[in-house]
């Protein structure tokens, strides 16, 4: 029976140059939520008989996102490389709005926080849609999984 999901996720710590407590919390939540519930089916590996669950390692190499997909035992099945050019703007926008959100939590009114949070979710949702588009023909996944993966992609882009 197929178990098309991620059972373990790892970020290339060498890629992550800097992060603060807010970003670290986002990373922990995204990983926890992702492991708890996700849909992830790398099409080539699945068609070759590897039905999951999968281990996933995310890294950025030469400006591209590398998704190293292994079986649950740790044997590498494939690495999918995605250009990140189309993600530069959403990543930049997401960081800017997250910074505003974290500042607002400390000093703004509830209505101001809600407005910023709605904008943050909008940027996040748009980036998740873009990720789903980039996965087409390579990985079948759902929107919630794509959102959480985008959060982790952002963590890999923190430059301090």
Notes on the protein architecture:
The protein is of the alpha+beta class. The protein has one domain (6-156). 51% of the residues lie in helices and 22% in strands. The chain has five helices and six strands; from the N terminus they run βαβαβββααβα. It has helices at 21-36, 43-47, 88-107, 110-135, 143-156; strands at 6-11, 40-42, 54-61, 64-71, 76-83, 139-141. The strands form two sheets. A four-stranded mixed sheet has the order 1-3-4-5, covered by helices on one side. A two-stranded antiparallel sheet has the order 2-6. InterPro entries: UCP032146. Pfam families: UPF0262. This is UPF0262 protein HHL27_13020. Belongs to the UPF0262 family.
Class from secondary-structure proportions: alpha+beta
Which strand order spans the largest sheet, edge to edge or round the barrel?
1-3-4-5
Q: Enumerate how many helices there are, as a single number.
A: 5
Strand-residue fraction?
15-25%
Low-confidence stretches: none
Taking the alpha carbons of the first and last residues, their distance comes to: 44 Å
How much helix, percentage-wise, in residues?
A: 40-55%
Name the overall outline.
elongated
The sequence of SSEs as H and E is: EHEHEEEHHEH
**Quick one: biggest sheet?**
4 strands, mixed
- In total, the number of strands is 6
The whole-number mean of residue pLDDT values reads 88
The whole-angstrom Rg is: 16 Å
Oligomer: single chain
Total separate domains: 1
């Amino acid at each position: 029976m197929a178990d098309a999901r991620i059972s373990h996720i790892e970020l290339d710590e060498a890629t992550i140059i800097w992060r603060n407590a807010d970003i670290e919390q986002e990373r922990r939540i995204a990983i926890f939520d992702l492991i708890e519930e996700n849909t992830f089916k790398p099409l080539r590996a699945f068609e070759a008989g590897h039905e999951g669950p999968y281990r996933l390692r995310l890294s950025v190499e030469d400006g591209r996102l590398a998704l190293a997909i292994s079986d649950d035992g740790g044997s590498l099945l494939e690495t999918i490389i995605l250009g990140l050019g189309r993600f530069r703007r959403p990543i930049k926008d997401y960081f800017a709005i997250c910074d505003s959100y974290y500042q607002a939590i400390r000093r703004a009114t509830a209505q101001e926080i809600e407005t910023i949070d709605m904008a943050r979710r909008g940027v996040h949702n748009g980036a998740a849609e873009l990720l789903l588009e980039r996965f087409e023909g390579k990985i079948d996944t759902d929107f919630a999984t794509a959102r959480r993966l985008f959060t982790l992609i952002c963590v890999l882009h923190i430059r301090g």
